[in-house]
Design brief:
By secondary structure, the protein is of the alpha+beta class. 14% of the residues lie in helices and 27% in strands. The strands form 3 sheets. Strands 3-2-7 form a 3-stranded antiparallel beta sheet, with no helix packed on it. Strands 1-4 form a two-stranded antiparallel sheet. One of its GO terms (molecular function) is 8-oxo-7,8-dihydrodeoxyguanosine triphosphate pyrophosphatase activity.
Length: 92
């Protein structure tokens, strides 16, 4: 069993309407909850490299400093759905 601390990365991605991308979790970990695309760091990785990898895997987007190379999001097997929200109209 792993007992050491884990470091995670997550991305807050906004579209042109300033909505935020959220992914609906599936599987055993956090099933049925909405969250930002991201994942756990691995030893020797840089934060930006891991974040780019996780966003590509989970949302199908290639990211770099505050921009996306792609507007075509797709789901990974870890999520049931995704949506973009306006933070002003979000539920608490």
């Amino acid at each position: 069993m792993e007992t050491y601390p884990h470091i995670g990365v997550a991305a807050i991605i906004r579209n042109k309407k300033r909505e935020i991308l959220l992914c609906l979790q599936k599987g055993a970990h956090a099933h049925g909850t909405w969250g930002f695309p991201g994942g756990r760091m691995e030893l020797g990785q840089k934060f930006d490299e891991r974040l780019k990898h996780e966003v590509k895997k989970e949302a199908g987007l290639e990211i770099f400093t505050r921009k996306s190379k792609s507007n075509n999001a797709r789901l990974s097997k870890d999520y049931d759905a995704y949506k973009c929200i306006d933070p002003k109209n979000s539920e608490t």
